[in-house]
């Protein structure tokens, strides 16, 4: 299965597994709304692309 992390989290959540909150962002303008929805003083951005392995 070749899916993004946000897709895997949604699948796990559907089956009742505990998953941390997060939002996929597809455009820069969506970032502020997602950060406000999460709350808190600090956020982490994790970029995800399907580009093969880890440089091996």
Automatic annotation (TrEMBL):
One cellular component (GO) term of this entry: succinate-CoA ligase complex
Alphabetically ordered keywords of this record: ATP-binding, Ligase, Nucleotide-binding
Domain ATP-grasp: 9-55
Example GO BP: succinyl-CoA metabolic process
Coiled-coil blocks: none
Gene name in the database record: sucC
Top-level class of the enzyme under EC nomenclature: ligase
Protein name: Succinate--CoA ligase subunit beta
Pfam families given in the database record: ATP-grasp_2
GO molecular function, one term: succinate-CoA ligase (ADP-forming) activity
Source organism, top-level taxon: Bacteria
Listed EC numbers: 6.2.1.5
Signal sequence annotation: none
